[in-house]
Design goal:
- The chain is an alpha+beta fold.
- It folds into two domains: about 130 residues, Immunoglobulin-like (Sandwich); about 375 residues, Purple Acid Phosphatase, chain A, domain 2 (4-Layer Sandwich), CATH 3.60.21.
- Helix content is about 25%, strand content about 25%.
- The chain contains 16 helices and 26 strands.
- The protein has a seven-stranded mixed sheet with strand order 13-12-11-23-24-25-26. A seven-stranded mixed sheet has the order 16-17-18-19-21-20-22.
- A hairpin with a 5-residue loop joins strand 20 and strand 21.
- Helix 12 packs antiparallel against helix 13.
- The radius of gyration is 24 Å and the shape is globular.
- The two termini are about 45 Å apart.
- About 5% of the residues have low confidence.
Length: about 575
């Protein structure tokens, strides 16, 4: 490792020959007089062919006395940190919760780099752990190996999935599809498990203010397994709802009460600010809304990854089965469900908003016309058409009663699920099924672009391999959905019911495979002509001792896109 001496750090911070980036970050006239630690690891993200975001956070021992701290960053060609190629200094302060984010430019394409942060103090040089990152290819058809993951509720269990990801070899990128954290307090979703594991949420309340969101990000990033995954590869991240609050949309959320929790605008702004501070993402352009997190990444000529924002900038107001069917008399149930679906079908309803829809249509067209083999959507919620199997036919009344009784908190949901299943209705109006006109516009854009569409999806805590079909039944692409880091899937709610996955596949033309159980991640491998998704699970999240198993794999080709073969 390069020796970090006083002379070396003073040269870096003083703007000398060693400072090749961040020329305007200021200087260090003297060592920092307080004590600092790097309690939250390091991370990288939003890599391009010539640049990457590097992230860390320092923890001053006495933050009230640390108005500003200068942090040194260094980038190396080798894992042993001997061949430095860039270095610089940047200041952080309470104004950004002591987080550090540097956009390092001038890098070579398609190669690994290694990085470290440090602070020069009176007690000596305090260094962070090191991390590995990787730039994207600028051209060519180099195969891509990307892992994707979602839904990490801290109280529900150990982050073994992240630890397993950190051990995956030759990953070009890790894609996080949202629900990186959850907003609930100790008495909310997962609280009972958290109490049993001694793994409760902090602060000990539902998060609402900027200080709350910062504290929750702080807690999550103290997890060592998550730190190892961040240090292993660059990430592409987008949020779903729980980074703000449950079932959020542009003007509100299911889990927000204006009178009790202040304005939705203030809460949304707080959530976005904390996310941009604590995550290795490139901030939106100055003229763009702060929540405009949509962006595109090109992996040479092989693939474009369009990272979507489906919550805070364009999503129409929620229509939920829970709200529409609450306290409905049995004889009005079917009529109310049909009326609900008529509202859902309104042509003006949007998931992305007009601006992002236009951006996505343009990116799909440009990517395809530029000769990229694949157009990949980093998307939060299920895009395929999904309805419940009719549980009144597949389960006995006794089985239904048993499931409802053991569901506890989810009992009312199960009762509603059973009633809806007899009507052949979409199961989840918070997914793209709740925005069919917007989904059709997306499919039309993909068709017009002649895109080879692959959609990556999180949210449901279950595994999926789907063929995406337009309203005429024609295939427009494929969808792979990952399970979760810790959050429970439908299989845990329907514990004891056999064959749930096959029931869903039998009831839905879009579904080739559905796995309602377990926690894990998925690896997408792309070549010029073939796309393959492999599903992995960890054996447990109740302890930190676990094993990893391969559950299933599916493959498709450009010439037969929509035809999924199990491998």
């Amino acid at each position: 490792m390069t020796k970090l001496t006083r002379r070396r750090l003073l040269a870096l911070s003083g703007g000398g020959a060693g400072l090749v980036a961040c020329q305007s970050v200021g200087t260090v006239a003297a060592p920092f007089s307080g004590r600092v630690t790097f309690d939250h690891g390091v991370a990288s993200g939003d890599a391009l062919s010539d640049r990457v975001i590097l992230w860390t956070r320092i923890t001053p021992a006495e933050p009230s006395e640390a108005s500003a701290v200068t942090v040194i960053w260094q980038v190396f060609e080798d894992a042993e940190l001997r061949r430095e190629i860039q270095a610089g200094a940047v200041q952080t302060s309470p104004a950004r919760d002591y987080t550090v984010k540097v956009d390092v430019t001038g890098l070579a394409e398609a190669r690994d780099y290694y990085y470290v942060f440090s602070v020069f103090t009176d007690a000596g040089v305090i260094a962070s752990p090191s991390g590995r990152t990787r730039t994207l290819a600028a051209s060519g058809m180099r195969p891509l190996r990307a892992a994707f993951v979602s839904c990490a509720n801290y109280p529900f269990g150990q982050f073994n999935v992240y630890d397993a990801l950190s051990r995956e070899e030759n990953l070009d990128v890790i894609i996080h599809l949202g629900d990186y954290l959850y907003e609930y307090g100790p008495d909310g979703y997962g609280g009972d498990v958290g109490r049993a594991l001694g793994r409760n949420h902090a602060p000990a309340r539902e998060i609402v203010t900027l200080g709350d969101y910062r504290a929750r990000h702080n807690q999550y990033k103290t997890d060592k397994a998550l730190q190892r995954a961040h240090a292993a590869a660059p990430w592409i991240c987008t949020w779903d709802d729980h980074e703000s609050t449950n079932n959020s949309y542009r003007t509100g959320a299911q889990n927000h009460t204006e009178g009790e929790e202040g304005s939705w605008t203030a809460r949304k702004q707080a959530a976005v600010q904390a996310y941009l501070e604590w995550m290795p993402v490139r901030d939106p352009a100055p003229q763009a809304p702060r929540a405009a997190l949509w962006r595109r990444f090109d992996f040479g000529d092989l693939a474009s990854v369009m990272c979507l924002e489906t919550r805070l900038t364009g999503r129409s107001e929620e229509i939920s089965w829970g709200a529409r069917l609450a306290n409905i008399e049995p004889d009005a149930y079917a009529r109310t469900a049909r009326e609900t679906m008529a509202d859902v079908a309104a042509p003006g309803r949007t998931m992305l908003g007009v601006e992002q829809e236009g951006w996505l249509a343009t990116q799909l067209a440009n990517s395809a016309s530029e000769g990229k083999s694949w157009q990949v959507l980093a998307n939060q919620v299920i895009m395929a058409q999904v309805k419940f199997p009719d549980f009144n036919k597949t389960l006995t009344p006794a089985e239904i009663d048993t499931v409802i009784q053991q569901a506890g908190f989810s009992g009312p949901y199960i009762e509603r699920l059973v009633k809806l299943s007899a009507l052949g209705m979409p199961s989840n109006l918070d997914a793209w099924d709740g925005f069919p006109a917007a989904r059709k516009r997306l499919y039309d854009a993909a068709k017009s672009a002649n895109a080879s569409l692959i959609t990556l999806t999180g949210d449901t805590h279950t595994g999926w391999a789907n063929t995406l079909r337009d309203p005429d039944g024609l295939p427009r692409g494929v969808e792979f959905g990952c399970t979760s880091v810790t959050s429970p899937g439908l299989g845990r709610i329907l514990e004891g019911v056999e064959g749930v996955g096959q029931m869903f596949a039998d009831a839905n033309a879009d579904i080739e495979w559905f796995d309602p159980d377990g926690n894990g991640f998925c690896v997408l491998e792309l070549s010029a002509d073939t796309a393959r998704a492999d599903f992995y699970k960890v054996s447990t999240i109740m302890t930190s001792d676990y094993t990893v198993s391969h559950v299933s794999g599916f493959e498709t080709s450009k010439s037969a896109l929509g035809s999924l073969q199990r491998v």
